[in-house]
Structures are given as C-alpha cells and as structure tokens.
Amino acid sequence: xxxxxxxxxxxxxxxxxxxxxxxxxxxxxxxxxxxxxxxxxxxxxxxxxxxxxxxxxxxxxxxxxxxxxxxxxxxxxxxxxxxxxxxxxxxxxxxxxxxxxxxxxxxxxxxxxxxxxxxxxxxxxxxxxxxxxxxxxxxxxxxxxxxxxxxxxxxxxxxxxxxxxxxxxxxxxxxxxxxxxxxxxxxxxxxxxxxxxxxxxxxxxxxxxxxxxxxxxxxxxxxxxxxxxxxxxxxxxx
Length: 238
Fold this sequence. Notes:
Blueprint: H1 3-16, E1 18-20, E2 42-44, E3 65-67, E4 88-90, E5 111-113, E6 134-136, E7 144-145, E8 156-158, E9 166-167, E10 179-181, H2 195-198, E11 204-206, H3 214-217, H4 223-237
Parallel strand pairs: 1-2, 2-3, 3-4, 4-5, 5-6, 6-8, 7-9, 8-10, 10-11
C-alpha cells in the first residue's frame, strides 16, 4: 500500500468522517489516522493482518463505529474503553480470549460482535452496558453461561456454535432479552433452565443441534407460555 494511496484515503476520511481500508494486508493500525482523531466517526480495517490495536485508539473520541473483523488481534488495549460514543464494535474472526477490564465503560455500545474468537465464557463486563441491543458470541469456546448474565441488557444474544453445557437460571431475569440463540452446543435438556420458557421475556429460543430432540422441549412445563410470547411477537412483525 503506497503512501500516496493512504494519503488519498486520509483526505477522503477528513471530509466524510469515514476511514475504510479493508483487505489490504495491513500489519498495523495506520498511525497517520491520529491526525483525524476529531474527524472520524467510522473506522473499518477488516480483512487485514493487524495484530495489535495501539493505545492511540482511545483518542478517537467521536468514533461511533469500529470494525476490525478478520484480523489477528489477540488482546484489546484498555484505551479502547475510553470511546464513550462508540455504538458498534465488530471484532469477528480474531484470536481474542478476553475483553479489557474496563470494557463496561463503553457506555454507548449497542452492537457487539465477537463471533469466531477464543472466548471461554460470557464476559462479565457486558453486564454493565446499559444500551446493548445485540451481542454475538457465536463460534467461540464458551462452556458455561455464568450468573452475571442476568444483568445483561441485550435484546438478542447469539451463543450458537459454542461448547455450552451449563446455563445459569439467571438468564431468565434478563430484562430486555427477546432472542436467545443456542444452536449447536452441548446442552442436555435437563440443563436448559425451564424458567426461560415459563418466566422470561424471551420470545425466540433457538436450540437446534444440541443433545436433545426439539420435540422434547415441547413437553416441558412452561412451553405453552413461551409459545404465547412467540406467537405474539410473530403477529407484531407480520
């Protein structure tokens, strides 16, 4: 990638507030971007080979959307958590094992996508995020869903294609959770909290590809209550 090409991208970004440079084999975050810390609203550096996100990421105080899908990130800097206006964060297809301790300070975050990483649990930091709508943690190595999930504010939680064999009953206390995806995990029917059916807000529960037949789910107490919510939601969107 030549300097002149990068310069052209920077000039465009200065006018539009959008910097997009995908699939260019970049090994590092372009340092020249720091000239635009007050301009940029969107950064997309997906499909590159970036291994480290530098601390200067914390200076983009107006950033609303950050996409770093399909890079080689193993950790995220604590400075990322300073982005108080960040609403969407896409980090699919990296090598992340955990989130920074201060991740709960990303107070404007609405969409978080971490599909295809190496997370082993649902990060407790997510419980502090008050405006979360969608959380995608599919295709990780998550084995259990801890009690802290009960404080999650998300409307949709995607846990497809993990190794989940245990789920805290607290998940049925999530105040806004409507869609719960648990396809292709390691769940026995006895490990699925019945309160998800009888006593939660969840109106779409996707559990195909686990260690039980779907028709067995229909025999559980509370299934009719779940179907009432499911049908009501279907009507609303029809």
